[in-house]
Amino acid sequence: MISHDIANSLNEHSWIRVMFQEGKRLKQLHGEEHVFDFSIGGPALEPPEAFYQSLRQVVDEPLAGKHSYGDYQGLYEARERIAAYLANRYQTGFSPAHVVMTSGAAGALNLVFRSILNPGDEVVLLAPYFLEYERYVTNFGGACTIVPLTEESFDIDIDCVKEALTDKTKAIMVNSPHNPTGKVFSQENLSQLGRMMAEWEAETGRQLFLVYDSPYDQLTFGGTYANPFSASDRVIFVGSFSKELGLAGERVGYIALNEAFEHKDLLAAALAYCNRVMGFLHAPMLMQRAIAGMGSLEVDASPYRLRSEMMSDILREAGFSFLPPQGGFFIFPKSPIPDDVAFCMEAMERFHLLVVPGSQFGRAGHFRVSFSVSLEQIQRSKDVFRQLRAFFGG
Ligand code: PLP
After folding, report:
1. Using CA positions, which residue lies closest to atom 7 of ligand 1?
2. Transmembrane residues, as ranges (predicted)?
3. What DSSP element (H or E) covers 144?
4. Which one of 19, 21, 42, 364 is CB 3.0 to 4.6 Å from 359, fit for a cystine?
5. At 42, which CATH number?
6. DSSP-derived 3-state class of residue 360
7. Domain limits at 176?
């Protein structure tokens, strides 16, 4: 009755779904305070007061047609706001003409792949990766080429990426801050990637896009962040307000192309057209207006830095080994046993502790801990992580 492709996907096992259902069941059975749910990737914080102030103003404004259809590309004032914000952050030129408002980063990535892929075109994904990417590529007949990040430090292995390029490769996807590892790629690593792409393009006469998915963009903990626009002139930048402003349920994000991007007019037109024909039409108007009316789009990363430090201390003291998170919501420790699924099952059944197996992200032997939870949950998980590690002989 339904498409074979979707039927196959429905039959695929999803650990995130299992965790979600098991988490609900365990909470009902034992009470919230006896379950330690670190499986969720949503924002832990409420939106800032500046957002609510702007939203209230938008709601109270006597504006006719406030809830009617809008521009497929997005409200001009919101695009203008984002262009100015990005120009300041990345010290490169942006015009509202090359910003497209979207239904979050997820909607944005679907617009991107719909706009750039022909059936059979390939997209390089760096493993581990956010598991939905595969679907976003195959939705439009694209194929994924998986290239692992380096073992311990999760850097981009430039030689491996180069080897994976074929005459069908259309794009390389980079996500920074990275889900699930917490890595923030360095400027040097991104620049090496950009140089390799330029050399390959010169040799082959083909063009590659660097799709830069950055929904955790401002949530970095080291004070610095890399600039993808100085690494390549063909960056398709995907941003979102889901995590940074705590608006995940409101579905608002954007795609931005900078001045250096050669075919920016054409691509921006394609993305806006895809917003229309894929049925999004445009990002939610109320949210676009509220964002346009905010004094600043800058975000304070310190509540997440605090969570990252507390969680890191707990995991380190328990004896887990991991790369200290540099940004985002996640830590990706090594599993004490090679079978990460067995480890996560044991954690769930024996300790009511929910973490996601690394194999779900294309890197077995690890597990993902989301610290985007309450400080109270992090504090009370100390003993349970210690007991879990001790159970596996730590
Ligand atoms: N990309 C990455 C790496 C993510 O982790 C997520 C959400 O968890 C998304 C994209 C989708 O975010 P949004 O809510 O903006 O669609």
Report:
1. 41
2. none
3. strand 143-148
4. 364
5. 3.90.1150.10
6. helix
7. 49-292
Closest ligand 1 atom to Cα of 107: 16
* Number of C-beta neighbours around residue 15 at 10 A: 22
Do residues 203 and 121 share a domain? yes
Structure tokens at 291: 């964002």
- What six digits make up the tokens of 135? 């679907």
Do 128 and 249 lie in one domain? The reply is yes
Which of the listed residues 292, 308, 325 is the one where a domain comes to its end? 292
Gap from CA of 60 to ligand 1 centroid (Å):
31
pLDDT tens profile 216-243: 999 999 877 899 999 999 999 999 999 9
394 confidence band (pLDDT: 50, 70, 90): low
pLDDT of residue 378: 97
Poorest-pLDDT segment among 11-25, 228-242, 263-277, 325-339: 11-25
Give the Cα separation of 153 and 162 in Å (integer).
Answer: 19
In this structure, what CATH number is given to the domain that contains residue 63?
3.40.640.10
* Residue with CA at minimum distance from ligand 1 atom 12: 105
Same domain, residue pair 158 and 142: yes
| Placement of tokens 């074929």 in the chain | 166
The two structure tokens encoding residue 47: 């939106």
Can you tell me which atom of ligand 1 is nearest the CA of 103? 16
Which residue type is seen at 306?
A: L
Give the helix ranges, DSSP H, for the chain: 4-11, 15-30, 49-60, 76-90, 104-116, 133-138, 158-164, 187-204, 264-277, 285-292, 302-318, 340-351, 375-380, 382-391
Domain boundary residue among 272, 292, 312? Answer: 292
Cross-strand bridge partners of residue 212: 174, 237
DSSP 8-state secondary structure symbol assigned to residue 174 = E
Q: Name which of 113, 119, 123, 59 is nearest 289 in CA terms.
A: 59
Q: What is the pLDDT of residues 347-378, one digit of tens each?
A: 999 999 999 999 999 999 999 999 999 999 99
In this structure, are 260 and 123 located in the same domain?
A: yes
Q: Tell me, in angstroms, the distance from the centre of ligand 1 to residue 93's CA.
A: 25
Residues lining ligand 1, Cβ inside 6 A: 41, 104-106, 130, 175, 179, 213, 215, 240, 242, 248, 253
Find the helix or strand (DSSP H, E) in which 146 lies: strand 143-148
Q: What is the ipTM of this complex?
A: 0.99
Cα-based torsion angle of the residue sequence 187, 265, 271, 185 in order, rounded to the nearest 10 degrees:
0
**In angstroms, rounded to a whole number, what is the distance separating the alpha carbons of residues 84 and 96?**
8
